[in-house]
Amino acid sequence: MGDDLDEETLxxxxxxxxxxRGGHTGELAGYVDAGLPVNMTNDKGDTLLILAAYHAHPExxxxxxxxxxxxxxxxxxxxxxxAAAVFRRSADTVSxxxxxxxxxxxxxxxxxETATFFDLPEMLELLRPGRPGGTG
Length: 136
Known about the structure:
This protein is mostly helical. The protein has a single domain (7-134), classed as Ankyrin repeat-containing domain (Serine Threonine Protein Phosphatase 5, Tetratricopeptide repeat), CATH 1.25.40.20. The chain contains 8 helices and no strands.
């Protein structure tokens, strides 16, 4: 039989990732509450949390974190949900992830490296409060 998922299962998984991308918090949370693995990943290693963070949906991010989503997971490119949120300049999403304990130095590129590379001082301030430019 192999490791291949049937078409119906694949379609369902794609729909779950689309819910994360679209910020459909209530519907996605309902599926997680009903047993959907909160840390499921797509073919690129993106978790529901990473997708919700990348698409700047802080409510969805918070709901997934509240249900045990692992903010330390990295996708196949080494990116975390926090780095994705920084890239998208979503302060509310960054704050939710930091409150949950996400590490600004984790991942490659890390959230700090992402904010530095793209010259996002407002994101560095969130990641390293009280330290000008996020350094020292």
